[in-house]
Design brief:
Blueprint: E1 2-5, E2 17-20, E3 25-28, H1 37-40, E4 56-58, H2 64-67, H3 70-75, E5 81-84, H4 86-116, H5 128-135, E6 138-140, E7 147-150, E8 153-159, E9 167-175, E10 178-184, E11 207-211, H6 222-238, E12 242-246, H7 252-265, E13 274-277, H8 279-290, H9 297-303, H10 307-311, E14 315-317, H11 321-326, E15 334-338, H12 348-355, E16 362-365, H13 374-379, E17 385-387, E18 390-392, E19 397-400, H14 410-422, E20 426-430, H15 434-448, E21 460-462
Parallel strand pairs: 3-4, 4-5, 5-6, 10-11, 11-20, 12-15, 12-16, 13-14, 13-15, 16-19
Antiparallel strand pairs: 1-2, 1-21, 2-3, 7-8, 8-9, 9-10, 17-18
The protein binds zinc ion (ZN) (2 copies).
């Protein structure tokens, strides 16, 4: 059996494994490369994948770096099924639709500039119509049940605890050399945090591919994170300021809504108006409500039926752009959740433009901010700053609350790999930057005497 890495090798994005047995060719994930121009150039389907000769695709979860190249795969001739849990397929539908819209807007803007410069127009990577061809192939798989997805090849999806529907993939394939059992961790979440269930632990296997986004980092304790968040919100309410929270639509928004409701219920903060100003986050929250059976038992009641409105009666949902703009005239204290998570696009931009020059504003960063993103620059103290063509002198308080990661930290990863490492399973480390991968390899060597492999993109591993 041969496993070739077509992404997320020695870096975080573009997750895509091609598994070839004597009898079948299967892909695990088909994600997009993100984060830099250099990486984005890798967003194509290599000829060596022979898209039309792949028997099946399995998705670990719906994030773009795991499903974003599917439209290219189908355009390249893939005609088989695309498997995932029903939660994963719903999230992937939302994320691919949004990505297609963003690309068509970006390309339109770019082509206006190119037309003026007398240059040829460019095309988007994929369109909404391309994404719809992908959705036709979606085939839900239940957790914890085996399914033959290709000749002599079956898979089982188990909880990965990362976002709604996320799974690790266990694959068993029969071939001439005998039976092989592989595990792909997918992106793993933290233990004992609300919203997602805890990751499932694995039985023995021949080889495990484990993500290492934070292979060398430990998150601060979750209770401390919530305490800090409560304190900051309370303090800002006393100053009657607006609290702006740039938020990722899937996962972080739902986690914040749950905690805001808990803080209010316990009387830790007064019931100030909370505005969910992101159509995508609203749609994602609806997906969470549609799949409460996939959530942590402690949050199921909050997300079921119309309970969010009951638990959080001060929540107002802004659907239209006009409703969003009307928030400029609303006085504090209030809290606005708006996308995009790194402040680079979306409705958060006009809230920043209107409120960053006020000393009463709190900009609350609760997610990862990439280098050079507006969120990162604000955190690093850039002042003044240009937003939508306007120069803003920043007087707002800007704070980052760490500890909300959807990713397992070093201790979570070690807890997950422990049953396999004890049996000296072959470990292949992926989905991480070089120093995170190296730290995990070093730890596995020290604790278990294991020498884990760190492959590069294009490497084929014989198992
Ligand atoms: Zn992910
Ligand atoms: Zn990922």
């Amino acid at each position: 059996m041969l496993v070739t890495l077509h992404g997320a090798a020695n870096e975080v994005t573009g997750s895509c494994y091609l598994v070839e047995t004597g009898n079948a060719r299967v892909l695990v994930d088909c994600g997009m490369f993100q984060g830099s121009k250099h990486l984005e150039k890798l967003n194509f389907i290599p000829a060596s994948l022979f898209a039309s000769k792949i028997n099946a695709v399995v998705l670990t979860h719906g994030h773009l770096d795991h499903c974003g190249r599917l439209p290219l795969l189908v355009k390249g001739g893939y005609r088989g099924k695309i498997y995932g849990t029903n939660g994963t397929l719903d999230i992937a539908r939302l994320i691919l639709t949004d990505a297609a819209k963003i690309q068509s807007d970006d390309v339109e803007r770019e082509n206006r500039k190119r037309a003026k410069a007398g240059q040829k127009p460019i095309k988007p990577l994929f369109t909404l119509a391309d994404a719809e061809q992908v959705f036709k192939r979606f085939t839900p798989l239940a957790y914890n049940s085996w399914m033959e997805i290709a000749p002599d090849t079956k898979v089982e999806l188990v909880e990965a605890g990362h976002i709604l529907g996320s799974s690790s993939v266990i694959m068993v394939a029969d071939q001439n050399g005998g039976r092989r059992r592989l595990v792909f961790s997918g992106d793993l979440g933290q233990w004992n945090v609300p919203i997602n269930r805890d990751p499932a632990l694995m039985d023995r296997c021949d080889a495990v591919f484990m993500e290492c986004t934070y292979g060398g980092r430990t998150h601060p304790p979750y209770e401390k994170t919530i305490e800090e968040l409560t304190h900051l919100i309370k303090e800002s309410i006393e100053r009657k300021g607006k609290i702006l929270v740039p938020t990722f639509a899937v996962g972080r928004t739902q986690q914040l809504l749950f905690h805001l409701s808990e803080m209010t219920r316990k009387g830790e903060i007064p019931a100030i108006p909370i505005y969910l100003d992101s159509p995508m986050a609203t749609a994602a929250t609806q997906i969470y409500s549609n799949h409460t059976e996939l959530l942590d038992p402690e949050v199921r009641e909050f997300f079921s039926d119309d309970n969010i409105r009951r638990f959080l009666p001060n929540l107002k949902i802004c659907t239209t752009a006009l409703e969003s703009q009307a928030l400029n005239d609303v006085a504090g204290p209030c809290l606005i959740l708006a996308g995009a998570g790194m402040c680079d696009a979306g409705r958060i931009l006009h809230h920043l433009r209107h409120n960053l020059s006020l000393a009463s504003t709190l900009l609350l960063i609760v997610g990862y901010q990439a280098k050079e993103s507006l969120g990162r620059r604000l955190l690093d103290g850039a002042n003044p700053i240009k937003i939508m063509g306007q120069t803003i002198f920043v007087r707002a308080k800007i704070v980052s609350v760490e500890g909300f990661s959807a990713h397992a930290d070093k201790n979570d990863l070690l807890r997950w790999i422990e049953p396999l490492a004890r049996h000296k399973t072959r470990v292949i480390l992926t989905h991480g930057e070089a120093h995170q991968l190296n730290e995990m390899r070093h730890t596995l060597q020290e604790q278990y005497g294991l020498s884990a492999q760190i492959p590069s993109i294009g490497d084929a591993i014989e198992i």
